[in-house]
Amino acid sequence: MSRPLLDLGKGTARLFWLVFGLAAAAVAIASLFAAGEIGRSRAIAGTQARAEDAGTLALAILRGELEKQRALPVILARDPDVRQALAGGSRHGLDLKLEIIAREARAAVIYLLGPDGVAIAASNWNEPTSFVGSDYSFRDYFRGAVATGSAEQFALGTVSQRPGLYITRRIEEAGQSLGVIVVKVEFDRVEADWRALGGETYVVDRRGVVLLATIEDWRFRVEAPLDPATAAAIRDSLQFGAAPLTLLPLRPQGELVQGLSPLAGRYVQMRQPVPTTDWALEVLLPVDAVITSGRSQSQALVALVLMPGAALAAFALRRRQHNLARREADARAKAELEERVAERTAELAGANQRLVAEMAKRTRAQERLSNVREELAKANRLATLGQITAGVAHEVNQPLAALRTYAENARAFLKRSDAAEADGALVRIVSLTDRIGAITEALRGFARRGKGPLVPVPVASVIEGALTLLEGPLRQAGVTPVVTAPPESVLVTARPIELEQVLVNLLRNATEALLEGGDRGEPALAITVTPRGDRVEVTITDRGPGLSQEALAQLFTPFSTTKPKGLGLGLVISQDMVTSFGGTLTARSRPGDGASFVIDLKRAAA
Questions:
Q1: What is the rounded CA–CA span in Å between residue 498 and residue 453?
Q2: What average pLDDT is seen over the chain?
Q3: CA nearest 64: which of 374, 383, 382?
Q4: Nearest to 226 by CA among 242, 206, 241
Q5: 82 and 171 Cβ atoms separated by less than 8 Å
Q6: Are strands 525-532 and 482-484 parallel, antiparallel or unpaired?
């Protein structure tokens, strides 16, 4: 090959170009195939990442709704109106109350079952499909609540014919079941929010039966065929009505899922369990268009890389043939390269615009996730009594341990005939039993909340009762309240148990504020009682971090809270109670200067 190609015979030159063309074609085909596979893999991986993001958002939406509604049966099981209705009191008043609660909490329906499983009150009392008088003793959610105290069951309503989750709680007195409170939750809003995420989302139970889905026709279908016994048991229980339990129009295809008509195409599938349930959440995102686009982009990029190389090789060979042909080939190669660069530039510009749009979409999705998380923080409703009970249990355990020690000492002294020491141990035992009695009496009084008449209430005794209930938490926080009261006995018009509950709520908030920070000056927590003519002011002041003006303005608004895990209901309930006494509850605070809550009540005659 030392001679110029121009000197070769036409046949040799033609063969040389043929071999060159075949080699270049083979390299191009192999490169384009490899680029297509790489583009396919990247497209699937990207879609899987988007499916995981969508699954995270969908799961957060579902859990937010579940946790919010699960608190309702727990609260209503302790409601005095519910217990009064079970005892033969006014049931229509409970109908109206349940109607308001269901509307505010966005529950489908709330109803109360007697011990025989017959509904005696319901939020839909005035609708044609009212549950009042219907027998639900055959339902698993009723049997489960009676047997274990609580239950959950997803089923098709026998009256409404609408699917939903039934959350139940047993109501009992002295170990005897009085009835069951039921909250039915429908998930239309959840499914609508899922549709906004794109793709298809559905939830299956442990048997693979679809409970929730963005495609309504999928509801009560199954992922895999059920064995005859399981299918028969489901139909006999009427859990899903007369649903045929047919298969979903989905078939596995390697790492993807093939959808059948009318949902034709291939999909990426993401599955994750739903915590606190035996459900699993599935997200399907279409991938055919993304694979096609990914392959096209990768192959276009490879072509953009191969074309200059092929052009340069052809240019070198053509140069050895003829200078003129070389210049013409160079001109053609440059023109073709510029055209492809322009096309690729246009493609990249379009891809950049799509990327910007995708970023904006993800930002909106993140904002929705943030809103869902804020709603999750509101789901833990009214746990004050349970938290106080845990603290009082700790306070009772210490005297009990001391009782055992003094009793054993008394036995030892009696064996040694040391009557004086034995008598001293017994005196201490009596003192400790008095202490336990005071603690349990305070807790029992606090639990006896009810709507009684307004009576003259000694402020000092109410403050003493609240401090007794909170003695453990205050000691654990290292806080010693300073109580400043007038020298004479002060009476106010109120209901003693509710006034004590207001003080417990405010003192707990003050203790939590002190744990968050502040200057911890002296006193860190103060209670001041100030008579002003025919009014009495009870002021609770803490030296915590204080509140901003924005937080102070929203302080008594339902579900508005500055606590990371707060519900925003404690102060609203406290204000309602004080208002029912004919008084007011106000607050003042500045960031860094602590906060003061003032209860203004009518003074009662001694």
A1: 11
A2: 82
A3: 374
A4: 206
A5: yes
A6: parallel
